[in-house]
Amino acid sequence: MPLPTWSRTGLAVVALAVVSAGGARAQESYLCTEEQSTGFLFDKVRRAWQPSVLVADRKLVVHLDQGATRTWFVSEGGRRTSSYWCPSGWVNDEMSCTGIAGSFWMNRKTMRFLYVYKWGYLDGDSPDTPNITIGRCSPG
């Protein structure tokens, strides 16, 4: 017995929706590459902080934890442990992440990131180099 015309149309719409939903999966990871980094070194002789251009060659992975929390994390390429966690997720195409050593921000519209490493200056005149780094991301 053939299906009425409205049933065949309804089934086609449902089938199309199921196929479309499968293809519209959200991005769950990004690979971010440093492009430029500048910081400050403490000169022990002058007892003063001096500007410094740093090597920018690290890769960072921004990824969504598939566990119960579904939280975003940032880790250095190849490492299993996360350096930063992003409790709020994406807000207006931007994500803010915090870690013990600094902060990480990413914009998924521009695919740019900014990273701040705070140790060295705030905790006294130490050999660490506080810095700011910029770079770009791509879907991972």
Strand content: 35-45%
Largest sheet composition: 9 strands, antiparallel
Number of helices: 1
Spans of 5+ residues with little confidence (pLDDT < 50)? 3-25
Count of beta strands: 9
Q: What is the N-to-C succession of helices and strands? A: HEEEEEEEEE
Oligomeric composition of the shown chains: single chain
| Gross morphology | elongated
Terminal Cα span = 49 Å
> What is the domain total for the residues?
1
Q: Helicity, in percent?
A: 10-25%
Radius of gyration of CA atoms, rounded to a whole number: 23 Å
Structural account:
- By secondary structure, this protein is mainly β.
- The chain has one domain.
- 14% of the residues lie in helices and 44% in strands.
- The protein has 1 helix and 9 strands.
- Strands 1, 2, 3, 4, 5, 6, 7, 8 and 9 form a 9-stranded antiparallel sheet that branches.
- The N terminus is likely disordered.
Summarize the helices and strands and which ones pair or pack:
Blueprint: H1 5-23, E1 29-43, E2 48-54, E3 59-64, E4 72-76, E5 84-86, E6 94-98, E7 102-107, E8 112-117, E9 131-139
Antiparallel strand pairs: 1-2, 1-3, 1-9, 3-4, 4-5, 6-7, 7-8, 8-9
Keywords: Signal
Signal peptide: 1-26
